[in-house]
Amino acid sequence: MQVHAEEFRSAGTGENAAVGVLLSHGFTGSPRSMRPFGEHLADLGYGVSVPRLPGHGTTWQEMNRTGWPDWYAVLANELARLRQEHDQVVVVGLSMGGALVLRLAEEHGADISGVVLINPSVSTEDKRLGLLPVLSKVIPSFPGISNDIKKPGVDEGAYTRMPLKSALSLSKLWKVVQTDLPKVTQPVLLFRSTVDHVVEASSARRVLTSISSRDVTETLLEDSYHVATLDNDAPRIFDDTAAFIARVTGPADA
Question: Which Gene3D superfamilies match (predicted)?
């Protein structure tokens, strides 16, 4: 396993321990991109889980033997565990992690009190996507897109190669999530970097125009690129998310 790719969990303490937060990293990344976020929420007393998705945090070759049902199963199991240990659960996802937690929201509506998305990936404008069914059979990988971070000297630890079989599976996840977006009714907080070299703004637009949630907030990040949880706007993301969690899990008349 890669350095700093370990999972992170905290049981929670104090009055906030009644709330669990499940955080998902993105495609070819690892818990490294979400650990500071998770640690911040754990310091506030929330129960926190930042799992490592199968095939991530090891080698891209290993990831090429996994697909979206494998990644999703880990999150679904963690959601079930958190629901047993906490009164309420909020889910948080970065990039592909956004698509995965949206799928959780689609399938487990009553079990999720809120959804936080950071540069969610549910679509692409890249025309090469249509070639993946053929390319993935003859080419194992493409050059990766990692470390899209404005802040100097920060390394998210993602793969330098993009495994194409897994990329094809990701595209299938997008289609599933897109179809059921109207099933999302939970409060949603969406952060979008105004400059993102990995996920186009149209992906966030698709989410915002398709979900059925009435409580929706979009926050633009002016000083971060794609991996915003490790970038200049990270403190704002952490603080705004904590406030969102407190609001959506608090008393109805609060």
Answer: alpha/beta hydrolase
**What would you report as the CA-atom Rg of the chain, rounded to the nearest whole angstrom?**
17
Question: Among residues 205, 231, 190, which one has the least CA distance to residue 125?
Answer: 205
Distances (CA, A) of 240 to 36, 84, 138, 147, 190: 15, 26, 45, 23, 10
Q: Which residues are catalytic?
A: 95, 196, 226
Q: Which two tokens stand for residue 235?
A: 């403190």
Q: What's this model's pTM, rounded to 2 decimal places?
A: 0.96
Q: What does the alpha-carbon distance between residue 124 and residue 166 come to, in Å, rounded to a whole number? A: 15
DSSP-derived pairing of the beta strands 161-163 and 188-193: unpaired
Q: Which amino acid is at 234?
A: A
Residues in binding site for substrate: 27, 96
**Cα–Cα distance measured from residue 249 to residue 251, given in angstroms and rounded to the nearest whole number:** 7
Tell me which CATH code domain 8-249 carries: 3.40.50.1820
Query: How many Å from the N-terminal Cα to the C-terminal Cα in the chain?
Result: 44
Cβ atoms of residues 12 and 42 within 8 Å: yes
| pLDDT digit string, tens, across residues 165-209 | 999 999 999 999 999 999 999 999 999 999 999 999 999 999 999
Q: Residue 106 burial (CB < 10 Å; 0-12/13-18/19+)?
A: buried
Cβ(49)–Cβ(24) below 8 Å: no
Q: What is the token pair recorded at 23?
A: 């955080």
